[in-house]
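Task: fold both queries, return C-alpha cells.
Query 1:
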Amino acid sequence: MIKVLIVDDSAVVRKILAEELSKYKDIEIVGSAVDPYVARDRIVKLKPDVITLDLEMPRMDGLSFLVKLMKYYPMPVVVLSSLTPKNSETALKALELGAVEVLCKPGSAYSTIDVSRSLVNAIRAAASAKIQKHTQPLPQPAPPPDSLKNFRFKTTHQVVAIGASTGGTKAIELILKSMPITIPGIVIVQHMPENFTTAFAKRLNEICRIEVREAVDNDRVVPGLALIAPGNRHMLLQRSGANYLVRIKDGVPVYYQRPSVDVLFRSVAKHAGRNAVGVLLTGMGADGAKGLLEMKENGAYTMAQDEKSCIVFGMPKEAIKIGAAQEIVPLPSVTESIINALNDPKR
C-alpha cells in the first residue's frame, strides 16, 4: 500500500484528489495539508511514502518547501501545477530541486479522469523512485574525447531517437549537454504535459551547444538540432526524399501516454531503419519497449539505460526483458555510446 499525503491550499482540489486516488486499492490517502507548515508536521507524524505538492500556496510557496524537504527529509514528491507557461517554468525548477514528476492540476485542459490516471501512475513511479537530495549536483558530462572534437559524420541521413518518462528530464539534460554540434538530428519523447515541454525545450536550448526546441509539424530533422515532442501530441518521423521531418498529430494515448515513445520509435523503425539509433531512458511502465524492438528488427542500433542510473527502472527493464536493447548503458556513458554507434562502419 502506498501512503499519500496531499498538499494543496484548495479544498476542492484536495477533495477531488482524495476521492479519485481512493478508488485504487494500492493507494491510501493518509491525510492532507493546506500549506507547507501543516505539511511538515503531518509528514513527520504520518510518514507518507509520497506527497503531492501544489506550487502556489500561502505562507510558503511549493518550491521553497521542496528545497527544505529534500535537504532535511528527502522523499518522493509529485508536483501538481496549473497549465500555464509561467507555472511550467516553475514546475521545471521543481524537477531540478528533486521532484519526481510534474503533472497538471484538475480543472486544467485535462479532464479529472485523465489527471487521476496520470497521477496514479506518477505516484506508483514515485514510490519506487531513487530519491537524491537536491543539494547533490547533477554530474557534469565528460567532455567529448579528443577524437570527437572535429568529428564529422559520414552522412547527415541519420537519426537519434530518445524516449523517457519519470526522471527523464535530468537524464535528457545530461545527454544533450554533452552532444557535439555535429550530431545528427535528435527526436525526443519525454512524458510531460503541454506547455511544460515548451519550457523544458527552452531551458535546454539555453544550456546546450546544440539547438533544442519543441517540435512543430513538418519540422526538418537536421544535424545539431534536437526536437522535443509537444505535450499531449504524438510525434512521428517521416522521410521526404533525402530528408527526415516530424509530424505532430493527435490520436489515442498509447500506454496512457500522449506523446508516446512507442509511436515515435515505430515510425523511426519504419522510415529510418538502420540509419537510426534508439535510446530508452528511465521511466515507469512499458512505453517504448516494443517500439525499440521494432527499431532493432529494422536494423537500428538500440540501447537502454542501466538500472543503477535510472530513477525508475521500468521502461528500460521492459525493453531489456524482450531483447530490444543491444547495449545496456549507464547514464553518464549514453552520449559516447550514441556517437560510437553512429560512427560504427559495420552498421
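Query 1 returned. Query 2:
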Amino acid sequence: MSVFEKQSRVEAPVKELFNWHNRSRTFERLTPPWEKVRVLERQGGIQEGGRVVLEVQQGPFRRRWVAVHGDYIEGTQFVDEQVQGPFAKWVHTHRMLPETDTTSLLSDHVEYQPPLGFLGQWAAGRYLHRRLERLFSFRHTRAQHDLKRYHPYAQRPPLKIAVTGASGLIGAALTVFLSCAGNEVRTLVRRRPQLDSPEIFWDPYRGELDKASMESLDAVVHLAGENIGAGRWTGPRKEAIRRSRVEGTRFLCETLASLRHPPKALVCSSAIGFYGDRGGEEALTEESAAGQGFLPETCQTWEGAAEPALKAGIRVVNVRTGIVLTSLGGALAKMLPPFQAGFGGVMGSGHQWMSWISMEDLIGVYHYLIHAETLSGPVNAVAPRPVTNRDFVRALGRALKRPTLIPLPGSMVKALFGEMGQALLLEGQKVLPAKLESAGFSFLYPDLESALRWELGK
C-alpha cells in the first residue's frame, strides 16, 4: 500500500474553502487540462453516499472510474473511495482545517495500490508518485487562485447570470468558474431544453428567445459567435463571422432592453482585432482608434450592436480579448504538436506583436467585470506584458524543452491560410490592459513564462 500526502496554506477562511469543495462543479476546476477526464454522472454531492462516475483516459484506452463518498464531516472533511476503476485500491481523504480567521490548511491524504500487486508497484510506483505530485500541486494552486478571486465578493448574495456561447472554449471554463463561486448560472442554448432544465432556449437568427427566463438576472455574459480561426476566410465564411457577432448581439440587446427587469450588466465579448495591424512599438489602450480591414470593421460593428442595451441603462462592457493561452484549444493548442515534435519556429518576420492572456486570467477578468460597477465600455483583456512572435516562440520552446529552429515563412502562411493567416499570424498589435490595471485588477500570470508553465503543467 502506498500513501501520498500534500498540505498547503490557503489564504481564505476554512468555511469558504469547504464551501468551494462542496459545490457540484468543483471537480472540473480541480482537473488539470492534461488529464483526460470526463464526468459521466453525479449523485448526492460529497455528502455521505454521494457517487460520481468518471471516464478516464489511459493511453489509447478509456476506463470508468466509480467513486463513492463517505466519512463526511461538515466544514472539515470528506472521503472518496474507488469502487471501480484503474487502481486496486484508492481512498482519498480531503481535510480543511482552520489556521487563522483568514487562512486555512488544505490537506489531501491518498492511500492507493496499483493493479497487479507487487509487480504493479515495482513497475509504476515512482511514475504514479510523480503524477500525483503534479496533480495535487495543480489542485492546491487552483484552490488558492479561485478563492483569491472569490473572496472580495464572498459576503455578497449569489448572482443570477446567463451566459451565451457556454459550450465554447472560454464559455465552458467560465460557466464552471462562476458556478463554483456559488452563483446561479443559466446557459443559452440553440436546442429545446428539457423540462426543469436551467438552460434557456434562443435562436438569434430566427429572433427567438425565452424572455420570461431572462427577467431579473443580475448579469448576462455574451460569448456566442463563429470561431474566426476555424478556416480560410472565404466570402461566405466572413459573412458568417460578421453575422454571428453583429446580429446575435443586436437581437440579444434588443431583448434585454425590452425586459421589465433587465440585468444590471452585460459583459460582451469583443477582440483586440479592433485595433488592426499596427506594427512597430505603438502601445494601444482602450483610447486608441480602430484599425482598418475585416477584423477592425467587424469588431466596431459588433460593439456597436450593444447600443440598445446601453440606451436601456444596462452597464455594457466590451471585452477586447487577446490571444488566449490554453492547451485545451485555440492558438496554443494548434501550435503544440509541431513544437513538441521539434518543428516549431518563428512565423513570418517574428517582429509582429502578440498580445496574449492566460485562460486563468481571462475568466478572472470576466468575473471581475461582472462585479466592477465602475467599469464600462471597451476593456482590453490582455496580459500587461505583450511579446513579439520571436519571443513567444522562444518561450514556448523553453517551456517544452524543444528547439525552435524551423521558421514558417510569411509566404507559406498566406498560401496555407489565406487572409485569415495574414490577419491572425502575421499581423499584430501591442495592446495594454490600461483600464484593468487602473482599476486594480490583479493578474495571476502577468508574464509569458509563468503563464505557459501553468497552462502546460510544467
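Both queries returned. Flag for query 2: The chain has two domains: 2-152, 156-456.
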